[in-house]
Amino acid sequence: MTIAVGSRPLADGRERPLPRFDRAPKSPKMTKPPTTLASEPLPVKVWPAVRKAAAVSTALWLFMLLTGFSAIEGIREQHVAGFPNDGQLRLYVVVPLGGLACSAAILGFTRRLPSWARRLGVGIGLLALLPVFMLFSGGV
After folding, report:
1. What is the pLDDT of residues 2-49, one digit of tens each?
2. Closest Cα to residue 53, out of 100, 118, 98, 99?
3. Residues 89, 72 contacting (CB under 8 angstroms)
4. Sign of CA dihedral 77, 82, 83, 84
5. pLDDT band at 113 (very low <50, low <70, confident <90, very high)
6. Would you list the DSSP string of 6-74?
7. Buried-state track 44-78, b at ≥16 Cβ within 10 A, e below 16
8. Which of 8, 47, 66, 69 has its CA 20 to 30 A from that of 22?
9. Tens-digit pLDDT profile for residues 54-112
10. Alpha-carbon distance 71 to 75, whole Å?
11. Contact between 72 and 92 (Cβ < 8 Å)
12. How many angstroms separate the CA atoms of 61 and 63, rounded?
C-alpha cells in the first residue's frame, strides 16, 4: 500500500483519493482568477453613484470655500472699518469649511458606512448647498 504525501488512509485501509484538478471545481471558491495578458487593459472599477455624488459635493464645497476666502481677502484689502464682520466670516468661510469637512468625511468613509448613512449624508450635503448658493449670490 503506497500512501501519497499528505493523504491519510481511510478507516478500512483504503487510500483516500487525491483531489483531481482536471475537472471543474465544486464550489466557486476554488476557481482561480482569470489570467490577463500584458496587452489586455486592466478592468476599470466604476465608482458607485453615491461616491460620485459625494465627490461632486466635495468639489462644490471646496469651490465655495476658496471663493469665500477670496471674497474675505477682497474685503480686507479695501480697509473698510467694521468689515469683514463675523457674519461674513461665518457665511463665506466657516459654513463652507464645515460642509467640505462633512462631505470629505463621507467620501473617505464611503465603504465603511451603511448604505442608508451614505445616501442620507450625501443628500443632506447636496441639499445644504442650495441655501448657501442663494446667500452667496445675494438671493438672486
Report:
1. 545 555 666 777 776 666 665 555 555 555 555 555 555 555 566 788
2. 118
3. yes
4. positive
5. confident
6. T--B-TTSPBPPPPPSSS--SSGGGPPPPP--TTSPPPPPPPPHHHHHHHHHHHHHHHHHHHHHHHHHH
7. eeeeeebbebbbbbbebbbebbeebeebbeebeee
8. 8
9. 899 999 999 999 999 998 998 889 988 888 899 889 999 999 999 999 999 988 888 88
10. 6
11. yes
12. 5
Which H or E element spans position 106? helix 95-108
Q: Considering the entire predicted model, what is its pTM?
A: 0.63
What's the CA gap between 8 and 18, in Å, rounded? Answer: 10
Nearest to 57 by CA among 98, 115, 117, 91: 98
- Cβ(84)–Cβ(28) below 8 Å: no
